[in-house]
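Q: How would the C-alpha cells look for this protein?
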Amino acid sequence: MHVQVNSNHIPGSVELHEWVGTTVEGRLERFDDFLTRVEVHLSDENAQKAGADDKRCQIEARPKGHQAVSVTHKAESMQLAVDGAAEKMHHALEHLMGKLDTRVLSSGELNDPLLDEQPQAVKDAMLEEEFLEKQDELDK
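A: Here is the predicted structure in C-alpha cell form.
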C-alpha cells in the first residue's frame, strides 16, 4: 500500500508527512493486500486564524477492483483529525470487506468463505432456518 500525503494551508514538513503516513499505514495495515493506494489530504480550514475543529483530514483509499472510499474528520488539532479519519477509514473498509465476504451470487448461491471450509455446517444452518420459518408459519 502506498500512502501519499498532501497538505493545504499547512507547512508540509518531512516529519509531518512521515508521521501521517506511518499513522495511517499502521491503522490500515490489515487491508494492505486489498488497497493499491491511500491519499491523505490535510488542511487548515481557517488558514492562519484559530477556531474550533478547523483542522481537516480527508483519507481516500483505493481498493483493488472497486471505487475509491473517502472519509473526512475535523478536529481541533491535526493529530486528532488524522487519528479520527484513520479510524473512520478503518470502519469503512471493514464494512466494505464484510459486504464482499458474504453476498448472493447471480445464480442465487451464497458466496460465503465458511461454505468452502465447512459446507455441511452451512447447509445444515440454512435447512434449520428454513425449518424454523415454516414452523413459525404453521403456528400462526
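The mean pLDDT is 79.

The first strand starts at residue 2 and ends at 8.

Upvote if useful.
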